[in-house]
Amino acid sequence: MAADTVTTFGTVLHDAEGRFVVSLTVFFSVLYDPLMAKTLLIREVLSWISQKAEMREGYSILLELSDVDPFFDKKKILLNDMGFDVKEIVHNKSSLDRDSLSTTLNQMLQIARIIHLDEVELYFGQTGGLGFYSPRNEMEAQNFILSLIKSALSHHVRMQTHALQDLRDALINRIHELGTEVKVENKIDINYQCDKEKCLVQWAQNSGAKTRLQIAYVEGAGRGAIAMEDMEVGDIAMEIPASIIISEDLVYKSDMYQVLEKIDGMSSETMSLLWSMKERHNCNSQFKMYFDTLPENFNTGLSFGVEAIMALDGTLLFEEIMQAKEHLRVQYDELFPALSKDHPDIFPPELYTWEQFLWACELWYSNSMKIMFADGNLKTSLIPVAGFLNHSLHPHIVHYGKIDSTTNSLKFRLSRPCSVGEQCCLSYGNFSGSHLITFYGFLPQGDNPYDVIPLDFEVDQVDTMVECPLSNWTTHMVRGTWLSENQNIFYYGLPSPLLDCLRSARSQMPFTKTLIKANMEVDKEVLEDLQSTFNGMMENLSDVDSVDRESSSWDVKLASQFKEMQRRIVSSILTSCSTGIKLVEHELSKCKAEE
């Protein structure tokens, strides 16, 4: 006979050295055979101790895909295909060798990459080995895991801390490796003194700002922020107190607010813009030092002249600039000269011309940031000194949009290391070159994965893809095929969702990506149609070689650079189509030979 019941209640404690001290209270009742009861009790206790020790010596980290993610269904499929769930718990022992540690980190990165995919990355898929999508995605995934480790370190006991620290060190090494791969060498123009900028920095520091960066003139980028010392992941490169941030709150304290609040549809952003037009000329302004550092001309696409606009004919940028300028002109005409006539003391006509309005629009488009203040309100703001941080496709600073309620300041924390003498950059957003030219006035260095060409066509999507449920997209796009490493049959360096959509329009039979005659014929038709479409697009993009870059104005040069980039993208697609057709024809010839 065995013991009728055996119930154990226990807790595991740890001493200063991390050793386990087991505290148990055991209740049991014996109906018969005390020796058998003792045997069962010992087994129960040993099993319980083993489970608790294993749990305490190891650690677990939860990686979760948010159920409100706009691409939840597609990401869930990707995770499931890799053997993961939307809520994946990674378990590890307290001691791992280098290979096991690397395996664990790779597993976590695979999940984190998918969680942090944006629309473009999700559409075009992987661009390299080991699940790599883009430098942006990789840095987001790495820093996401770093934040989870940091949180775990604050809740675990000493033996777990050692294991988590090992994982953190391995991840930091990965971040360093990525930083080395994407590091850009910049040349500083020592002849540019930056006197006004230095005065602004001193003014900000007197108000409580802190910075480990200095302002210098970077060739090809204009003014930028240069690291004065080596900085690591997590270090704060710059800290700006909320008291010197320019936001809508300043408008509410001004005399123009009582007028503007009565206008239907008047946004806080437009109020701030109108406030800055007047404050710019206020000699007694608290922000005089800031306005003194601003350029007379911002040279964005909104200021393109007729020659530059004409040079863009046939491009997406032409439409984007024309639509933006038309929108701004309509907005201006709705406000002026009416406001100046009705309230000349508040809106002096000489300060509210179309040229002044356009300047202010360019200021706020190119320099403002959306900041979450301590009161929980999101406000479009101008940040003195931080405005010198330039955009990069491989930024050091990614997350910077929230006021720290403890210090009431905006902190710019590094997501990857920045070496002394290196330009410290942030991300303005995942924008295409056309958007960056229109509202910021530049094209970034390197291959921008967001330089896409949207395709405007309608195809009745038929659910015929048995191998790729991720192909169900309502909009389609292309980009430079040099960004894709898969130029093989059925892929051709082109986006799979686009190819699958076009295949489904040509065949009601499931397309299984097998080397059979019917599939080859469908792919040949798809590639020939794409080739025809992009041949026509290339014809509309006139050759840019005729433009004299040396004597041209800044806007014509920038327009020519954009057009050249567009031609390069279209050319790569035509090359991929041509190469793909040859691949398909080769396979078709093999099929015929077998017949």
UniProtKB/TrEMBL annotation:
<keyword id="KW-0808">Transferase</keyword>
<dbReference type="InterPro" id="IPR046341">
    <property type="entry name" value="SET_dom_sf"/>
</dbReference>
<dbReference type="InterPro" id="IPR001214">
    <property type="entry name" value="SET_dom"/>
</dbReference>
<protein>
    <recommendedName>
        <fullName>SET domain-containing protein</fullName>
    </recommendedName>
</protein>
<dbReference type="InterPro" id="IPR036464">
    <property type="entry name" value="Rubisco_LSMT_subst-bd_sf"/>
</dbReference>
<keyword id="KW-0949">S-adenosyl-L-methionine</keyword>
<keyword id="KW-0489">Methyltransferase</keyword>
<feature type="domain" description="SET">
    <location>
        <begin position="211"/>
        <end position="429"/>
    </location>
</feature>
<dbReference type="Pfam" id="PF00856">
    <property type="entry name" value="SET"/>
</dbReference>
<dbReference type="InterPro" id="IPR050600">
    <property type="entry name" value="SETD3_SETD6_MTase"/>
</dbReference>
